[in-house]
Each structure stands twice: as structure tokens, then as C-alpha cells.
Amino acid sequence: MKKIPWGLLILVFILVYIGALTIPYVAHKKVSSSFQESFAKHTFSNDSVGTERTAYIDDNVEALQYRLRMVEEAEEEIILSTFDFNADQAGKDMMAALSSAAKRGVKVRVIVDGFSGFLDLNGLKGKPWFQAFAAQENVSIKIYNPVNLLKPWNLQARLHDKYFIIDEKMYLLGGRNTTNLFLGDYSSSKNIDRELFVYETAAAEDSSLLQVRDYFEAVWKSPDSKAYTCSKVTDKISACGVELENRYEKLQDLYPESYTTWDWESLTMETNRISLLSNPITSDNKEPWMWYALTQLMKQVKQVTVYTPYIICGKEMYQDLTDLTANGTDIEIITNAVSSGANPWGCTDYLNQKKNIWNTGVKVHEFMGKHSCHTKALLIDDRMTILGSYNMDMRSTYQDTELMLAVDSRELNAKMAKEMEHDKTYSRTMGDNGTYVYGEYYKEKEMSTGKKVFYGLLRVLTVPIRRFL
Fold first, then answer.
1. CA proximity to 393, closest of 294, 325, 310, 336
2. What is the pLDDT of residues 17-31, one digit of tens each?
């Protein structure tokens, strides 16, 4: 009997594994009639002022200061959901502050994405710090869909939500991860991001705060979420715990504003209604709840402006955009210029797909700011603002958990519209005749030869796998 070559067996195994990794996500699901009916019943606007107030946070240092102040306000429970949680300076700041709250009896629950958890919480650099954090009384950590190479069909689904809840009083929600790139001023490399702080002035059964808490509880109790614990406190782990205590003391000197009393009323603005939009939470190929909700809200309006770090649309998404513009909705998209974008997959896909994007009738502004823009938001006419974690790509549409807040507030809308107009001056826009129109402050950034070669290769490699990027 002739032996089968090892090389052939390995090749067959690799092909089968890739199939198990990708085939479950090849066919894009459609939104069920039950979800469509429930969405149609929801009201996203209100004629009178609601109980929730909001603040718009667009600065990384301010974002860290808000978090530190919010921790000091906690009396019963703190909830943190994050995609990335590095043991860098910003990450240690958060662990130190949360540890101090746990020591005074506040229950702290943290959930982190499985892929990022595999790299961050279990990495050589981060593990002792997170073990020291997890070992503390009143601290519970879970990992959503941990990496399991024996189940490749689950590896595509990620927890992409980012929010921070304090008791039943206040929360933050947006696109910021818990790393130096997004919090504080610890690195010359940073991302521009925006998020919303929401403050509850009075209890309300339909408040967005309760919606976010209910969403968290569903994810926390999901069989996809597994406990992360410290099995043994070693000398190294114990030393990290002591260092976190010392770091908390230093925080009060570094950020003294966060350790004073804040007037939340004066820091926030009125809203009529805030509603939570989400994707399904199961770690599998998802119905596109978020994309459906966004496109429904974009219908019957005149003007939509979108912030997204990158654009990776499938044929269904292209068709929806085409239908919207054909029916009279003016859609503008602000996204990173290729030479300044932080996501190479998104940048190279844009090089391949930009004509398809423009053919939908949308107007694209290629942003060239000092830093890469990580903001995910929409402005709908002059009243509705939608902001959160959703990227305009197939991964956010069909594979990841995502959250966005739909806020009925003319004041918030006007504030963000002013910022968007400013960012357009740092952008170039494709005109109707195929030539670019340059904003007043747009400055071309030349890519290095090495980056050009790298992107050239990626333009080929990404073609067959673009729906999984």
C-alpha cells in the first residue's frame, strides 16, 4: 500500500482548517422579521426633555480623567467592557483605580474580548498585572469567546463593545479601548476617538443606562463568556499588586481634577431620548441588526454624515447605500486617508474598492489629520447623533458584537457637526469628474517605499478574505 505523503496530509489539514474557520461566515444572514417588527415599534425621538444628560468627550486625557472620577463616584458596582486592555500606563491606571474601588467594597466586573484577552491578559507582559488585579476580592473578570484553536468556527466572532458603567448613575460608551492609544497622554502614537458620557438625573424604566446594563448581563451570563482567575499568587504577582496600590496614590497627583467633586449637571447637556442599538451577542455568524437599524434611521431624512475609520462593504451594504442615495438621502463619509490610516486591511481594501464606494452615490472625505481617526458615528439631519463601536465593515456587521447610542439632541448634533466640518478641511474629496477637491488644511503624506510595497502585496492578499478582515 502506497503511503500518503506527509506534505499532502498537512496541506489537506490546512485547507480543512481554513474551511472550518471561514465557511460558517461566507453566507451573510438577513435580519429576521421578528427583529424588523420590534425595531419598527421603537421610538428614537421625543418632543420633551428626558431624564438622561450627556457629555461629548473627544480628548484622550479628558477621557481618562472622566474614568478616574467615575470610579471615585462608585458606591456599589463598576462594569467595564473593552476590546483591548493592555498592561501599559493607561491600562495600569485603570487597574489601579478599579482596585482601589474594590478594596472599599465596590463590586468590579470586567469583560474582555477573547482574542485580545489571549494577547493582553495572558501575554508575557500583561499576565502578572492582570493576575494581580483578578486576585483581589470583589474583582471578577471574564473573557468573551476565548481563543480555542480546536474550534476554528468560533474564532471569527469578537466582543467589540466598549462601555463603562457606574452603579445606576452614569456610564461611558464609544470606541475607546483601554490602552495608551486612547487614554491619557502616554504615547506620541494615538488615535482620535469620541465617546458619550451619560448621566441619569432620575430613574426611568426605559433609560439607556438600564438598556446597557441589561445588555451587559446577557453577555456576562452567556456561555461564551468564561471566567479569568488567578490560580496562584506568586511573588511577581504580589509585587504587581503592591505597585497598583502605589500607582493609585500617584494618580491623585497626576490627575488632581479627578479627585475633586464634579458638577455633572453643568458638564452635560439635555437629551430628549437615548436608545441603545446592538448586534446579537452569540459568537457566530450574526444577523446584521446594527446595519439594519442604521439604514432604517437613514431613510426618510435629507442629510447623513458618517465617521468610520475604514470602509469594507459587502454587496448587500453597497446596495443599501445605493438605495439610500437614489431615494434622496445625501450621505457623506469621513474616513482615514490611506497614508494615515491605522488599519492596513481597511486602507488596502479602500484602494481596491473606492470606485465601488463612490458608485453608490456617497461622498467620501479622506481625512489626513495629525493622528488616525478611530471615531464611529453618524449625524442624521440636525437632531439625531449615533455614536459607538460600529465600523462600516462586514466584520462589525456580521461577526462582532457592537453597540451604538442613538441620541435625540439638537445641541449634541450641532456640537459634533461643527467638529465634522472642521475635519473636512483636513480632507480631500473625490469630485464628480473623478478629480480630487482638497480641503484648506489637507497636506499629502507620502508613504515610504516599504509601506507602498507592503500595501501593494496586501491589495492582492485581501481580495479573497476581505469579508473576514
1. 310
2. 989 999 999 999 999
Distance from C-alpha of 294 to C-alpha of 274, rounded to nearest angstrom? 15
Round to whole Å and give the CA distance between 266 and 122. Answer: 42
Gap between the Cα atoms of 196 and 176, Å rounded = 11
Tell which residue, 407, 247, 245, 392, has the closest CA to residue 313: 392
pLDDT band at 63 (very low <50, low <70, confident <90, very high): very high
CA triplet 331, 404, 139: central angle to 5 degrees? 155
What was the pLDDT predicted at 175?
96
Which pLDDT band, with edges at 50, 70 and 90, does 1 fall under?
A: low
pLDDT band at 277 (very low <50, low <70, confident <90, very high): very high
Distance, CA of 396 to chain centre: 9
Which residue type does 95 have? M
Per-residue pLDDT reduced to its tens digit, 103-152: 999 999 999 999 988 888 887 678 999 999 999 999 999 999 999 999 99
- Place 381 in a pLDDT band, splitting at 50, 70 and 90: very high
Classify 54-266 by CATH class. Answer: alpha beta
pLDDT at 2: 66
Kindly indicate whether the domain formed by 28-47+275-468 is annotated with CATH number 3.40.640.10.
Answer: no
Percentage with pLDDT > 70 across the chain: 99
Q: What is the 3-state secondary structure (H, E, C) of the chain?
A: CCCCCHHHHHHHHHHHHHHHHHHHHCCCCCCCHHHHHHHHHCCCCCCCCCCEEEEEECCHHHHHHHHHHHHHHCCCEEEEEECCECCCHHHHHHHHHHHHHHHCCCEEEEEEEHHHHHHCCCCCCCHHHHHHHHCCCCEEEEEECCCCCCCHHHCCCCECCCEEEECCCEEEEECCCECCCCCCCCCCCCEECCEEEEEECCCCCCCHHHHHHHHHHHHHHCCCEEEECCCCCCHHHHHHHHHHHHHHHHHHHHCHHHHCCCCHHHHCEECCEEEEEECCCCCCCCCCHHHHHHHHHHCCCCEEEEECCCEECCHHHHHHHHHHHHCCCEEEEEEECCCCCCCHHHHHHHHHHHHHHHCCCCEEEEECCCCEECCCEEEECCCEEEEECCCEEHHHHHCCECEEEEEECHHHHHHHHHHHHHHHCCEEEECCCCCEEECCCCCCCCCCHHHHHHHHHHHHHCCCCHHHC
pTM for the full predicted model: 0.95
CATH 3.30.870.10 in the chain is located at 28-47+275-468, 54-266
